[in-house]
Amino acid sequence: MTTQSKDLPAPLVMSRQHPAGFSPTWRRRCKGLALPLLIIVALEIIVRIGWLPSYQMPAPSEIALTLTDLAEGALWKHIGASLIRVLLGFAIGASLALVFAAWVGLSREAEAYLEPTFAALRSIPSLAWVPLLLLWLGIDETSKIVLIAIGAFFPVYVNVVAAIRNIDRKLVEVGRIYGFSRLQLVRRILLPAALPGLFTGLRSGMSLAWMFLVAAELIAATKGLGYLLSDGRETSRPDIVLAAIIVLALLGKLSDGLLAVLERRWLSWRDTFTGQNAND
Questions:
Q1: Which CATH architecture has domain 80-221+257-267?
Q2: What whole-number distance in Å separates Cα of residue 183 and Cα of residue 66?
Q3: What DSSP string runs through 51-102?
Q4: For the whole model, what pTM was predicted?
Q5: Number of Cβ within a 10 Å radius of residue 228
Q6: What is the pLDDT of residues 243-262, one digit of tens each?
Q7: Coiled-coil regions in this chain (predicted)?
């Protein structure tokens, strides 16, 4: 006896499984929007009926109007200043982290000299660096970029070192059996095996770069999203503060999404577990 799906034409069976224009990827993205939309609707209702005072938590519609007003004014100047600082600081911090992580990961001697110092430095809070960098470098762009580089350095360093040290020893032994030189061993075995940890470190480093940016701009800046946060606080404008937080969240999500796209493209050769659906 044949099932009903076998009696249906092939295009109809496929359309029933994956409706046209609504692929599993888009369904997953729509699910990701469900919680933010629910929070927005709930906040709008709670503020409008007076359960939450608007001077503490403005309604989402009011925040949207503030974002529109800022977009017609100085918002793009603040975004541009913060974006340049994050990109420069992240590039410097991540590049240095890759160099030191490769050195420490491949050399026990380097680990003995460097790891204790790096372990102590990465436990220092971001705000603790601010007064020292201001004393050394002043309030110009250099101090902000250096602070962001410090924030991006340690997540990349820690994850890449861990990725190198967690490589299966058998892979290295196979490379030595085939007569690989040290450079070939790094290029053909160690680097591909460490790429997942590298991208984990890059994405964590980018997140901390945005956090350290706010720490720098809150204290010593005349433009940038951190400065916009500080300005909203000083003028008692929670709508401006929340608008700046939303822009920071969107920029952070966008930068993380770009790294995630690169990760999927460079690691497309992996056959890894991606989770189960609810009906699996």
A1: Orthogonal Bundle (1.10)
A2: 55
A3: SS-TTTS--HHHHHHHHHHHHTTTHHHHHHHHHHHHHHHHHHHHHHHHHHHH
A4: 0.83
A5: 27
A6: 999 999 999 999 999 999 99
A7: none
